Amino acid sequence: KFSFQDYVQYRIGKQYDRGWGTEKDAEKAAAWYRKSGTDYAKFSLGNLYFYGNGVEQDYEMAAKLYHEIKEFPFSDLKLAWMYSKGAGVEQDDEKAEKYSRAAFKGFEKMERKEKSDLTEYQLGKMSYYGQGCEQNLE
């Protein structure tokens, strides 16, 4: 269900996060992301916690937010890294592989729906390293 209000709150947060049309302010970005119920806002807020940008770095909070998002390959990719390193979650190679496979499949689905340089880059990088798929150096 689409909520225009949630979407606008996410976009305001993104403007503060990136400094688009306003001064860059990660604290304000975080506040607007928290108001929004969108998965994009959860992912963006998770990234603020992941990198410690405008909030104290907190891998556990980042992982919590990424787990709340379903079928979004970018959050799956972050979770794969976190499980492989034990960052904010207990280190678990099986879960790291599970989230890597989910990310790869999600990027493939995105690419079938609409061609994108970003998804092609992610698929190429993952294929090169064999992350979530069989390694393919070509």
Describe this structure in words.
- This protein is mainly α and 138 residues long.
- Helix content is 69%, strand content 0%.
- It has 7 helices and no strands.
- The chain has helices at 4-18, 26-35, 39-51, 59-68, 73-85, 93-113, 117-129.
- The protein is globular, with a radius of gyration of 16 Å.
- The protein starts with a helix and ends in a 9-residue tail after the last helix.
- The model has no long low-confidence stretch (mean pLDDT 96).
How many distinct beta strands?
0
Radius of gyration: 16 Å
> So how many helices?
7
How does the helix and strand content classify structurally?
mainly alpha
What percentage of amino acids are in beta strands? under 5%
Give helix and strand order, one letter per element, not per position: HHHHHHH
Main sheet attributes: strand count, strand direction, barrel closure: none
Shape: globular
Q: What descriptive keywords fit this protein?
A:
138 residues; 0% strand; mainly alpha; 7 helices
In short:
The protein is mainly alpha-helical and 138 residues long.
Task: Explain the layout of strands and helices.
Elements: H1 4-18, H2 26-35, H3 39-51, H4 59-68, H5 73-85, H6 93-113, H7 117-129
